[in-house]
Amino acid sequence: TCAVPSSASSAAGSKSWSVNSLGSVMSRPMRPARDAYAMGMDDTLLLWVDVETTGLDPSHGAILEIGMRWTDARLDRLDDGFSTPVAYAGPVDGFIERMHGPNGLLAACARPGAPTPAEAARLARAYVGPRLSDGARVLAAGASVRFDRDWLDALMPGVLEGVHHRSLDVSALD
Fold first, then answer.
1. H or E segment at 53?
2. pLDDT (tens digit, 9 = 90+) per residue, 32-64?
3. CA 71 from centroid of its chain's CA atoms
4. In what helix (H) or strand (E) does residue 64 lie, and over which residues does it extend?
């Protein structure tokens, strides 16, 4: 799962993080860092990306959910984000069933009217596209964001077109 910044701040003024997956929320304080703008990131936007999948290999699996949120380099939210389940009614292994059965994601994917993978890709691209023309450098961000990028590139090509090849992976901060 992907950590995405929330707008809430603790009493100490540090940002808290929340996991985007159909209502399951975890938080942990982020250590204060040097000001992002002082570090030369004033023209950078972060596109926080999270995908939930049926496994670990995009050549043998499906995307179950896409979640995205824009922030500036100071981690201030720029909008309410984008999240959608993706239609899927195929088999999943026991691990995925235990993870996404109780949180309702598998049921959301099996509902009539859940966006097909092509529809979900179009919706995600419609969310991403408009900010790419702002002239800012856009980095994909998240926890293990390479995993999410690989899945989107393999199964929904074009969704991240125009996003910088570099990423901000918060799992490297632990």
1. strand 44-53
2. 455 554 455 678 999 999 999 999 999 999 999
3. 12
4. strand 63-72
